[in-house]
DNA sequence: GAGCACTGC
């Protein structure tokens, strides 16, 4: 176990030491990363340090991109990718060492891998095979539970070269963190040399766009002698070209002020930041298994997250961080962010564990156990989808479940694909599922809403979002992905290209599983039937009072404003998921017949009806 | 009647 601060070079050096020590001769050294870009750039760097061609001694594997060969001995890969490999080989036989890097981030994939490598290690020992060495690397002090989990593994500490950062707290709690952020930005702006840039952490797109406008307005009316200000928003759904602006140096006499979500905490690193303004707030997802509801809410950051934000000020030189909360408030923050695995729907994770032939998934050795309710809810979902069965008192995958696990998708979407041959619409379902599994291909700049609406009219289907997206994709293919067309039609070109990649991958998997791929052509009824049969547990009916109620749990829900059905009142719909922000919203809707739902799962609805009566 | 943090297979 290595605990190393940022800049200690642990990720690039340790794999090379292991290789030089001869461990790489018995098997490959794997190094996992939570993000694709990190895996690729680290492989590139280590490969050039070894003075070898990338893809030979040193390589990487991420989704859609595999640059490894028979010679590869040091392999960087995303944690999700190693997990996928483990399904084909639970003992990870080709590896002599697995290094799980950035373990402190506690992504859902890293957390599952903790258990998978531990099980592989034990199994290999029992069978007298080459031992599997496991190294956990973390940048924070939470090593105790890592060490404990891995049977008291030794901990090594590495010195980093972080620059000192001065921290200021507010004297009083702030009731309005946006106002406080605004005041701090302009206070810094009037006092500090113009070459020192400011990074402000806020919670979301809307808030950031509003704050950007306010800052720009104020910056127009600054007193003489005050430097100019360039205000830049930064969040994930911002088009790539606009994200890139934050890397450009401001002109002389001008200061950069970047207003960002937590994307700038880890995913995007900006040089030249001297000041960090931390509102102490973040928008984060929680999950309540009882009603299958995701809740997205603004909440306090953890201490670890606050330190991560602070660290963004000291990357090249000493820095300054303004925390817009008192020191007492900070002391009350949670120590660590709750691991993702305790905040998610676990259907995918459980399906993967079953595919790994874990003996008893209900008692799987997680480092941080999810609640029994969450595990139970996931198993029930898999059961409804027909993915699991009981055999000799063990929970195992059905043949259908095993096929579902082959797809890199949420189980309900794998099921949609596997059902589609019955409705002769696999071509269309592949497209729809691909569109749903990447970030939105529809770009909605708030300032140009009317324009967007009039351009988008031609794609809109009265049958719902799935079919609307399908018509956008067809139009995109008709112009061969023309970039100008994308711009004119507010279609995100980058995400659309990704849809094509995903679709090709899913299509390949279908071919491998001998699934016939037919097109329903102009018949949209079959597509909707297929969606009704796979999303029946996500159905809602219009009530006499004009509200919607979910068929399963009688939850009051509303159509999300992003849906093409927002202004409509169809009698019966299925949706991809529920998201609770201010209200409980259904997202991505498809109009269906109530009869189809009952046909899809008569037992389920009979049970629900009985439960409602009791 | 009006809204979507961030990754990843």
TrEMBL record:
Signal sequence, start to end: none
A Pfam family reported for this protein in Swiss-Prot or TrEMBL = HA2_C
Biological process (GO) annotations held by this record are: positive regulation of transcription by RNA polymerase I
Q: What is its EC number?
A: 3.6.4.13
Molecular function (GO) terms for this protein are: ATP binding; double-stranded RNA binding; hydrolase activity; rDNA binding; RNA helicase activity
Main localisation, per the record?
A: other
Location of the Helicase C-terminal domain: 187-357
Record keywords, A-Z: ATP-binding, Cytoplasm, Helicase, Hydrolase, Inflammasome, Nucleotide-binding, Nucleus
Catalytic activity of the protein: ATP + H2O = ADP + phosphate + H(+)
Coiled-coil zones: none
Q: Where in the cell is it found?
A: Inflammasome; Nucleus, Nucleolus
Its biological purpose: Implicated in nucleolar organization, ribosome biogenesis, protein synthesis and cytoplasmic dsRNA sensing. Stimulates RNA polymerase I transcription of the 47S precursor rRNA. Associates with ribosomal DNA (rDNA) loci where it is involved in POLR1A recruitment. In the cytoplasm, promotes elongation-competent 80S ribosome assembly at the late stage of mRNA translation initiation. Senses cytosolic dsRNA mediating NLRP3 inflammasome formation in macrophages and type I interferon production in myeloid dendritic cells. Required for NLRP3 activation induced by viral dsRNA and bacterial RNA.
* Family assignment from sequence similarity: Belongs to the DEAD box helicase family. DEAH subfamily.
Name used for this protein in its record: ATP-dependent RNA helicase DHX33
């Amino acid at each position: 176990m290595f605990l190393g601060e940022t800049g200690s070079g642990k990720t690039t050096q340790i794999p090379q030491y292991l290789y030089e020590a001869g461990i790489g001769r018995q098997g490959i050294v794997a190094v996992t990363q939570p993000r694709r870009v990190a895996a690729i750039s680290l492989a590139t760097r280590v490969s050039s340090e070894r003075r070898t061609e990338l893809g030979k001694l040193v390589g990487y594997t991420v989704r859609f991109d595999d640059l490894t060969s028979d010679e590869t001995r040091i392999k960087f890969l995303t944690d999700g990718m190693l997990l996928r490999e483990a399904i084909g080989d639970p003992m990870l036989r080709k590896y002599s060492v697995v290094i799980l890097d950035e373990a402190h981030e506690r992504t859902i994939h890293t957390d599952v891998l903790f258990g998978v490598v531990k099980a592989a290690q034990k199994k290999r020992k029992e069978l007298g095979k080459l031992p599997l060495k496991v190294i956990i690397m973390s940048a924070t002090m939470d090593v105790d539970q890592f060490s404990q989990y891995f049977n008291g593994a030794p901990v090594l500490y590495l010195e980093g070269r972080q620059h000192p950062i001065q921290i200021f707290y507010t004297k009083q709690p702030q009731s309005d963190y946006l106002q406080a952020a605004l005041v701090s930005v302009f206070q810094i702006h009037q006092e500090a040399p113009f070459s020192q840039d400011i990074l402000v952490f806020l919670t979301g797109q809307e808030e950031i766009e509003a704050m950007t406008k306010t800052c720009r307005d104020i910056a127009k009316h600054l007193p003489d002698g005050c430097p100019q200000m360039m205000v830049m928003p930064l969040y994930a759904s911002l088009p790539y070209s606009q994200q890139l602006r934050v890397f450009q140096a401001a002109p002389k006499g001008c200061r950069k002020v970047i207003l960002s979500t937590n994307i700038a905490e880890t995913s995007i690193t900006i040089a030249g930041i001297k000041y960090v303004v931390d509102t102490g707030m973040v928008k984060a997802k929680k999950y309540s298994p009882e009603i299958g509801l995701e809740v997205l809410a603004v909440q306090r950051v953890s201490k670890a997250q606050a330190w991560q934000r602070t660290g963004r000020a000291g990357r090249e030189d000493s820095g300054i961080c303004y925390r817009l909360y008192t020191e007492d408030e900070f002391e009350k923050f949670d120590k660590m962010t709750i691991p993702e695995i305790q905040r998610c729907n676990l259907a995918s994770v459980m399906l993967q564990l079953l595919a790994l032939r874990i003996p008893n998934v209900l008692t799987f050795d997680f480092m941080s156990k999810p609640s029994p309710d969450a595990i139970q809810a996931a198993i029930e979902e898999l059961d409804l989808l027909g993915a699991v069965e009981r055999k000799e008192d063990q929970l195992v995958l059905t043949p259908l479940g095993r096929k579902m696990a082959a797809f890199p998708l949420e189980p309900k979407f794998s099921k949609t694909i596997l059902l589609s041959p019955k409705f002769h619409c696999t071509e269309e379902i592949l497209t729809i599922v691909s569109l749903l599994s990447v970030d939105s291909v529809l770009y909605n700049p708030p300032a140009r809403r009317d324009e967007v609406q009039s351009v988008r009219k031609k794609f809109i289907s009265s049958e719902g979002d799935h079919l609307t997206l399908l018509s956008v994709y067809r139009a995109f293919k008709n112009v061969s992905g023309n970039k100008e067309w994308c711009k004119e039609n507010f279609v995100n070109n980058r995400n659309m290209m990704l849809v094509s990649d995903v679709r090709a991958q899913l299509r390949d998997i279908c071919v491998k599983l001998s699934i016939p791929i037919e097109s329903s052509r102009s018949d949209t009824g079959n597509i909707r039937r297929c969606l009704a049969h796979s999303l029946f547990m996500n159905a809602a009916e219009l009530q006499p009072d004009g509200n919607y109620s979910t068929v399963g749990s009688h939850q009051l829900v509303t159509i999300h404003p992003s849906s093409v059905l927002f202004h409509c009142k169809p009698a019966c719909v299925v949706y991809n998921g529920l998201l609770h922000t201010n209200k409980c919203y259904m997202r991505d809707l498809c109009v269906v017949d109530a009869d189809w739902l009952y046909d899809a799962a008569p037992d389920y609805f009979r049970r629900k009806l009985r439960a409602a009566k009791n």
